[in-house]
Design brief:
- With about 230 residues, the protein is mainly beta.
- The chain has one domain: outer membrane lipoprotein receptor (LolB), chain A, CATH 2.50.20.10.
- The protein is about 15% helix and about 40% strand.
- The protein has 3 helices and 12 strands, in the order αββββββαβββαβββ.
- A 12-stranded mixed β-sheet has the order 7-8-9-10-11-1-2-3-4-5-6-12, with helices on one face.
- A hairpin with a 4-residue loop joins strand 10 and strand 11.
- The longest helix has 14 residues.
Amino acid sequence: MNHLHRLLCLSLLLITPALVAADAFVGKVSFAITSAKGKTITMNQSFNGTAVRTDTDAGPGGVIMDFGKKEMIILMTAQHMYMVRPMNPSDIPQDIKNKQAANNPDVEATGKTEKILGYTCNQIITKDAKSTTEIWVAEGLGMYFAMGGQGGGGMFGKRGNADTAAKWEQALKGKGGFPLRVITHDAAGKETFRLEATKIEKGGVTDADFAPPADFQKFEMPNMGGLNPFK
């Protein structure tokens, strides 16, 4: 349940203005995410222009964020169950809101480019008092609309990683492009977060990718007197 709690709260950080862009990427992307301790997990994301599905090899299931319907579907694979939650910004814990509002990193487009998985990427550097992050943003893949604090490390790791992810994602808001590599170093120069795309597949998604499997049973949270157990 602790993992599910983090998954729900941190996923809600995806809610931003202009959720769906006309040129949003449609297809599948796999990422390798490495923590400060050197542990690497695989994150697979599917995009259809109005929704994003995220699965990892470290979690109990997946999460589908449907921006058109303004709802989130949490999949619990082992139990063959799923939950549906409205995407309500009021569910985001206030301390995370405060940290997100305080993220005002310096942003620099360096002019450097590099090929990643065949796509030309432009380097962007963000800096604040605690960290420096280099972001390699691809051209020709449309806009990465899952902005606002996912970044993998936060959703599927500790909240501290969520803060790291929120900084670089916030730096990209409104600038377009699709991040294929993100590397963060702390003030001492130690690498604390790395996200790197390992596979890109344009298209290949269906409606079934963004819905619970037919054999999954819907799970309803019990009425707890108005208390939200995920807050």
